[in-house]
Amino acid sequence: MKLTLDAIRDCLDGSIPGTLATCAADGTPNVTFVSQVDYVDSEHAALSFQFFSKTRENVLANPEVRVTVVNPLSGASYQLRLRYLRTESAGPLFERMKAKLAGIASHEGMAGVFRLRGSDVYRVLDIQPVPGPVLAVEAPRRNLLAALRQASARLAASQELDALFDQALATLRDCFGVEHSLLLLLAEAGDRLYTVASLGYARSGVGSEIAVGDGVIGVAAQQRTAICVPHATAEYSYVRAQREAALALGGGETLPREIPFPGLAEPHSQLAVPIVAGSRLLGVLYAESPEDRRFGYDDEDALSAYGAQLGTAIQLLQQSAAEDEGEPETASPRPLGAPVQVRHYAADDSIFLGEDYLIKGVAGAIFWKLAKAHAEGGRVEFCNRELRLDATLRLPEVGDNLETRLILLSRRLAERCDYLAIEKTGRGRFRFKATRSLRLVEAG
What we know:
Residues 160-324 form the GAF domain. This is GAF domain-containing protein. By secondary structure, the chain is of the alpha+beta class. The chain has 3 domains: 5-130, Pnp Oxidase, Chain A (Roll), CATH 2.30.110; 144-321, Beta-Lactamase; 337-443, Arc Repressor Mutant, subunit A. The protein has helices at 54-61, 92-107, 144-156, 161-176, 215-223, 238-248, 297-321, 361-377, 384-388, 402-416, and strands at 18-23, 29-34, 37-41, 44-49, 64-70, 77-88, 118-130, 180-186, 192-199, 209-211, 227-229, 269-277, 280-289, 337-345, 350-353, 356-359, 381-383, 420-426, 429-434, 436-443. The strands form 4 sheets. It has a 7-stranded antiparallel β-sheet with strand order 2-1-5-6-7-4-3. The protein has a 6-stranded antiparallel β-sheet with strand order 10-9-8-13-12-11, with helices on both faces. A hairpin with a 5-residue loop joins strand 8 and strand 9. The protein is elongated, with a radius of gyration of 26 Å.
């Protein structure tokens, strides 16, 4: 039976550099190491193009090459006969290899030295095993196909969007053994992602944001492809990147309005997969680990499939939540506790409860609308419909992020104070609860 690239994907994780043999136009051979041999599909592989060199000159003159790859666990070697097709310097494949190369470079002490110029795509013509001793390999820690089947059943059983977010990450832990994970959704403007659920961290980080295109999570969203980094790399450290981004926006003064990102300070492997529903990007599912090489190609496949199923579940529950029943009611104010000052900054709709930062953006605008209606007229009952029809909230015409913003706001309130809450009272309806009176202030 002919050996295919699918069968030897473990050799292509970048742990051991490949050996690339090329030939000049006059027949002179050249052998060198190549940092990355990446799996594209069963018939194609991509090699990292990093330097203008003799190798590059040979490939362009004589497109047929030989590459030897090694399984880092068993030591089994394989020789690949490849034919050069093209070079990609942008797009999903390039960004995926760029992120992985950053981890490889950091692991090898070459951070800042390796720079990906392009992804050279080759057709696989033949694969032959190289004779030699092979070590026994331990069985995988779990059957990912069985895990995906179990995870799919859990998603199908979810009936509420709020519960689905937590269930999605609990399923990653229980079925796939992922101890640290985040669920982020795409903001209305399409330029940022915000955290709605997390698992495995001291603080939840609900409401923390990452720009599309920034790091593993942002690139996965931008390119709509799985991004895996097998080793620790400062270049893709979110904790550092978030602080630098906040400082760039206006110095230390902006920091109190940024919810700290909950990720590991030094993740040694990261995997981000897009959450999609049809052609619509909903968000990103992110997993990380303190172990090197925790995630591989099989994990990419399994979590990518899981992310697609999660996207369908989110979309269906969003549509269900949009079906309002009844009209909002009003209620007379009742005796409340000591008043609290609520400050609203119109520039970014950020909200402060006293001196404590709560939220900003669309969720902040929603909170301000609810707080004003409550403080001025004593309202406690609201429905999604009236919020959706309010143009000042900047909700998109296509899609429905309102329910997810309400969930985000509800979770932030639960974390930051014990005198305000948002409680769901029915399909498309909720209650704004306040046990202290609100003193509203429009700040500069």
